[in-house]
Design brief:
The protein is an alpha+beta fold. It is built from 21 helices and 34 strands. Strands 15-14-11-12-13-16-20-18 form an 8-stranded antiparallel beta sheet, with helices on both faces. Strands 28-29-33-32-31-30-34 form a 7-stranded mixed beta sheet. α17 links the parallel β22 and β23. It starts with 9 loop residues before the first strand and ends with a strand.
Length: 741
């Protein structure tokens, strides 16, 4: 390895050691930082150049680290890996998450990352004789499969037993019990109904939750048998049955305080840990402010929490990774809730970074790569906190400006995620936020006072939605006869008399029930699942709660053979119906899903979309759901087409193309060179104002999309861009900046 004479930066300022001197030491046989230090004298002073030495060392390796990452929807590891030199990544993920990766990325798609056998076969086929050095998963759903694949491929990593103990809540409880760590008594159920027969094994109240899951999703407290019966007959019971996992029932812990401890483990030893106390116990508080503050160094609880964290790590057999341990302080001492072997959510990673300087995502990825972690904590003085501001269902009328909150004592950062006009769903997970505020103070007591001050000033004014998911009989529009009008939007490529036939089937169903329907058409490009997914998502963004979206597209050669018809409701109260061919993945990803069901016994006959499904759409619009809610469907089975950046998702009647891509920080009049595959199409001017007025006829321009912030529109001034350059829905465009303004 050589360094050009014109590029020889000083790496160690204390000893004035340059990069060329370090590479010379490496060429002479130095193989680690200690050896470099011994030969060159670098890193013997202030120590700040340690990371830079490590970067030079990693860059000197001739062979990159080959990583297999089993990922769901986590984007944070992608950021970290982009900054790690010499890593070749193969990603195993699901179609609905393909959009997270660039087109050139080596991505292996499977329907379910929890399906070990399918994952194994897919990875072996994709590797085609190539080797893997490490296997890593940043999510609970993929960690067991990642550990098994690592063991199968003979690479270092966490064992399958450790991964299972960190993700399967009942196995976790048994491992902690075996190590003598205090935990709540628990039993494993194959269905929530089984608790009625086994309740005598526990004491009421009881906490029910899926055996695998995160973010407090579907975690509920049941106080007695009567409340259990009520829960089983309602939507929460249906969701628990449809979650796709066994259920853990554990005794409710009467706690005085709830804590979490977040750390980094290398070689089975905790190399960093930070203890924090939640502002209030989390369970049942999704609609109220929450958050946590660091435990002061002189608090006696801190040492016990750190000690329990180390015991938990040993009990589950964890070799490396980030950790998030939940603990409860009771009248008789601490009880451990659970451990997750991944960085926490809900703003805690940033909370840890602000207080200690440690990036849990970066260190967990480096540990997975087998590289030295870079933990040199710089703990902030006093106590730090993060405050979660929850969403409330409805339309935002007013939210306190961020600058007003930043001006309050103790506030160090404000991240508001809502603005007036936004329509918010009710929170179903602890990671759903309207805003996140970071604070710091000299003591816990003063910090609590400052948090109360923030909550006194903060306002989120909500206008309730005109309808709710449980009562669709109230609509803002009504007919002259006073009967509410139900709105249905049909997203389809059946735009001729076929659409009229579908409308007729819906109207006939509505007349029989003395209801009135308003049916609208949104035409789709023929045979295009991509265009259908985009238009379904666009309709959901522009129509009011209670609207029923029926998506029906003639089947192309790209979709799966099976014909499962589903219906569901988004967190914002829109109902969607159609075949599970990928049309609803984008919608589910962006707006969230409250519930979803399968429509059984769909006849495999010509145009069942008219004869069988259209009447069902009408019944859903009229609120007649009882017979249609008997077959819960797992949300994670909703297919996603998995479009890559640059995909053309729509071409309008003027030939303007809507592209799934964010152009980034371009300036007005920057010139882009557009490409389709290996073919250069044309140059395009980036326009940020006066879009077409200042351009010459025939010029191609691009600008931030009028549909979604993360998209781009490309068009031709008084011309047809798509026809002129042969661009169609489903094409993938690329570009580079050819000339800056």
């Amino acid at each position: 390895m050589t360094v050009p004479p014109e590029a020889d930066p000083v790496i160690c300022l204390c000893a004035h050691v340059t990069e060329r001197e370090i590479t010379a030491a490496l060429d002479a046989g130095a193989s680690d930082v200690a050896a470099i230090r011994s030969v060159t004298g670098a890193n013997l002073g202030c120590g700040e150049c340690g990371d830079d030495l490590e970067d030079v060392l990693v860059a000197s390796r001739t062979a990159p680290t080959r990583l297999l990452m089993v990922n769901g929807g986590k984007s944070e590891p992608i950021r970290v890996l982009d900054d790690e030199p010499d890593v070749e990544v193969t990603v195993l993920t699901e179609p609905r998450h393909r959009h997270l990766y660039p087109p050139e990325a080596n991505v292996v798609l499977v329907e379910d990352v929890e399906d070990l056998e399918t994952a194994r076969k897919a990875v072996l086929a994709a590797l085609a004789g190539r080797s893997i050095d490490r296997v890593y998963s940043p999510t609970e759903r993929g960690q067991v499969v990642a550990a098994h694949l690592g063991a199968y491929l003979g690479v270092p990593g966490n064992s399958p037993a450790a991964a299972f103990a960190c993700t399967h809540k009942f196995a976790m409880t048994r491992a902690l019990q075996a190590a003598g760590i205090p935990v709540a008594r628990a039993i494993l159920l194959t269905s929530p109904e089984q608790l009625a027969d086994r309740a005598d094994e526990l004491s009421w109240p009881v906490v029910l939750k899926p055996v695998v899951g995160s973010g407090s999703a579907l975690t509920v407290v049941v106080r007695d048998r009567a409340e259990l019966a009520e829960l089983l007959s309602g939507p929460v019971g249906a969701d628990l049955r449809a979650c796709g996992h066994a259920i853990v029932a554990e005794e409710f812990v009467a706690m005085l305080d709830e804590y979490h401890c977040d750390g980094v483990v290398v070689g089975g030893t905790t190399v960093f840990a930070l203890a924090s106390r939640y502002l209030a116990p989390l369970l049942g508080r999704l609609d109220r402010p929450s958050g946590s503050m660091t435990v002061p160094v002189d608090d006696l609880a801190r040492a016990e929490i750190l000690r329990l964290h180390e015991r938990v790590v040993r009990a589950v057999g964890l070799d490396h990774g980030a950790t998030h341990v939940e603990l409860f302080r009771t009248a008789s001492g601490f009880v451990v809730g659970e451990i997750a072997c991944r960085p926490p959510g809900g703003g805690i990673v940033e909370h840890v970074r602000r207080h200690s300087g440690v990036d849990l995502w970066r260190e967990s990825v480096r540990a997975a790569l087998g590289r030295p972690v870079r933990i040199t904590p710089h703990f902030a003085d006093g106590v730090s906190a993060h405050l979660h501001l929850p969403p409330a269902p409805g339309r935002v009328a007013h939210v306190t400006p961020a600058d007003e909150l930043r001006a309050l004592p103790g506030v160090t950062e404000v991240d508001l995620r809502v603005r007036p006009g936004d329509v918010l769903p009710a929170a179903t997970r602890s990671s759903q936020l309207a805003g996140l505020i970071h604070l710091r103070s000299s003591s816990s007591a003063q910090l609590e006072h400052q948090i109360r001050r923030v909550l006194d000033v903060y306002r989120l004014d909500i206008v309730p939605n005109p309808t709710t998911a449980t009562d669709r009989s109230e609509r803002p529009a009504s007919s002259q006869r006073g009967t509410p009008v139900r709105r249905i939007v049909v997203v389809t490529d059946c735009t001729d008399v076929s659409f009229n036939e579908m409308c007729g089937a819906m109207y006939q169903e509505a007349r029989a029930a003395a209801h009135h329907l308003a049916v609208e058409l949104v035409p789709v490009q023929n045979f295009s699942e991509i265009n259908a997914a985009f238009l379904t998502r666009l309709v959901a963004d522009n129509y009011p709660e209670g609207t029923v979206i029926y998506t029906l597209v003639s089947k192309s050669d790209n979709v799966l053979d099976r014909h499962e018809v589903i219906w569901g409701e988004t967190l914002g109260g829109l109902v969607f119906v159609g075949s599970n061919f990928g049309y609803f993945g984008w919608l589910a990803r962006d707006q969230g899903v409250k519930r979803v069901y399968e429509v059984p016994n769909v006849p495999q006959t010509p145009f069942s979309g008219k004869t069988f499904i259209a009447p069902i759409v009408a019944r859903l619009a009229m609120g007649d759901e009882a017979e249609l809610s008997r077959h819960p469907y797992a949300e994670d089975r909703i297919e996603d087409i998995g479009m890559v950046p640059g995909t053309v998702v729509h071409v309008d009647n003027f030939g303007n193309a809507k592209v799934l891509a964010d152009l980034g920080d371009l300036r007005h009049r920057d010139i882009l060179s557009l490409h389709l595959g290996d073919r250069q199409l044309c140059d395009a001017s980036f326009i940020s104002s006066q879009i077409y007025l200042e351009r010459t006829q025939g010029d191609v321009v691009c600008y931030r999309s009028t549909s979604f912030d993360h998209m781009t529109d490309i068009g031709m001034v008084r011309g047809n861009f798509a026809d002129a350059h042969g661009v169609r829905v489903g094409d993938v465009l690329t570009w580079r900046v050819r000339e800056t303004a």
